Hints:
The chain is mainly α.
Amino acid sequence: MPTTGVPFLTIGLLLLSNIFMTFAWYGHLKFKTEALYAVVLVSWGIAFFEYCFQVPANRIGYGYFNAAQLKTIQEVITLSVFVLFSVFYLGEPVHWKQIVGFAFIALGAFFIFTK
């Protein structure tokens, strides 16, 4: 694969991974009456698909990105997916303090990628 496609493939796979991860970790919050063992098993099954995208993303992206950059990309995607998930799936509003906190994380990401 030409290296020009590596960032797009890596980020795309990380995005898919984080969608599954978010549902595995937080999707059960809408099902408070379900038995804990049941939601753990369902979450574990969903997390399998997270790993099916996460591991190849890191394997493909490593070398083009260093490990700190891969982790930073993953965290920024995680927060982005989580905000959309919490608003549209859980119906929670976004508070200005969360936006400020995420902006500080984005500032940290900026420093990870600058030379």
